[in-house]
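hey so i finally got around to running the thing on that chain from the lab meeting. sorry it took forever, my laptop kept dying and i had to restart like 3 times. anyway pasting the input first so we r on the same page abt which one it is
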Amino acid sequence: LAYGDVEYRFAHPSFPLHPGEEIMKEASPAYGDVEYRFAHPSFPLHPGEEIMKENKALLLSALINFKSEDGVDRVAREQWLFEGPGVYRPRKEVKVLSSRTVETISPNSALFLQPLMDFKAKDGQNHALYVKAKRTHVDNFGKRSHIFYVNEEVFQVVSPIVLASNNYCVICDPVNEEGVPRIEHLDDEIMDVYVLGQSDDIILRALESFQDGSVVTRTAGEEWMLTGPLEYVPPIEVEVVTVRKAIPLDENEGIYVRDKRSGQVRAVIGSTYLLNQDEELWPKKLSPAVITYRVPHNATVHINDYKGKKSRVVFGPVRVMLGPDEEFTLVDLSGGKPKRTNIMKTICLLLGPEFCTDVLQEKATKLFSQPDFLGNFCKTIAARMRGIVASVNFGQFHKNSVSLIRQSVFGTDADDIIGDRLFFPHNNLVVKSVDVQAVEPVDQRTQDALQKSVQLAIEITSNSQEASAR
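ok and heres what got predicted. didnt touch it at all, straight out
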């Protein structure tokens, strides 16, 4: 041997060690060799001993450049597999990195393999990303199996996606930008094929511009409708907005339909109707269906069209149907006994003849709420009279005393007409009339001056009448 060289010797006859040679490792069974030991005392496994089964392999690495027994030129750091069953004899140029076991692939399953570097597999295929197992075989159990190669590692075991005849699914990112396959995933769950009946339709919207068939070109955002009967699977450029069914209508039934483009609302009455892609049900406040009302005999309703600014009165008996812009006029009526306002709300007025009853109630305890109602009554009238007397001079009061007193007690309205009653709400006292029996000044000097003035006026009047008589 050359200096520093190493050599493995198998089943070699006895030999002496030359000067400078030494045994680096004691003799041990080769990989795959089996040694039977009977009634043997306990012993340790020698270094390197390992039992290889049929579905195993060894991962080997070249330490230096050399040519293997099968004539393959190996380069330093190259890795390859030695697959069993077989006997592997170690070489000084080769290092055993690890052992690998077969990965079992059940029916309807697959392995995703991830390459650790770009390489060419034994089947001649170039591998650079995720690939399926190319080299397969059937083992004794009838299952498919694969020993992943030197530059492969198991990335994921994938279960099959089972689709029935009425199912479909959308697969995202099957390849990368360079067209190399990679791990796929579903955009959504498995979905059912859209099955439309005779009275069904489906509203579709284009997610991007594409050629729909050989004639029609769809632009992004465009909506269109397909009517049944048919089975439909939307392409990836299309999303399903909604599936609609025809609305059956009797001759006395209807719906409000709004055009989304123009905003116009119309009533569809008495026929089965299927909305198109530009229409939608218009929800009136009370109901999305056309509102109908039976006007009874000897009654009437008032209907107002707020958009057309017109109204109509309908007399019964008749069935009335509101247009999309029409509303009933609501009437608030008093009710109960005694009557209270805004108790009844109705849209129908009965024309009569009709009777109305009511109960008038008053609390008797209010009569005794004022201990001295006469004193309060007199003080109130006196205060009112003082106010009116203070606002005029003596001459005006003397000439119009009766009128001024009535005005002070009952007050006047907006037209200066004297009222006819004075009401005290505390005890429900009502004053209906005032009799003026006498008007006398309290001050004696004022009373004397008033008497002298009256006498002088009488004397002047008498003299004037006598002069006229002569």
